[in-house]
Structures are given as structure tokens and as C-alpha cells.
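Problem: given the chain below (45 residues), write out its structure.
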Amino acid sequence: MKLLIFFGGVLVGSLLGMTALCLVQINRDSEEELRRVEEKHNAKE
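Solution.
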């Protein structure tokens, strides 16, 4: 029973960790895209 709880915790923890890492990566990509658009806008002026 303890082994089942351990593996359940590892599974849930790894899923939460992967979700957090994906959200951080998505945020980083969005910031880079905003920076590129802003640079293009400033170059036109």
C-alpha cells in the first residue's frame, strides 16, 4: 500500500512539474515575440 501511494505521489508530482515547466516556456516565447514586434515597430518610426 505504501508503495502504491509513493508511485501515485511521484506521478502527480511529475505531471505538475511538467505543467509548470511548459507554462514557463510558453511565457518566455511570448515575451520574445512581443520584443520582436516592438523592435519592428520602433524601426519603422
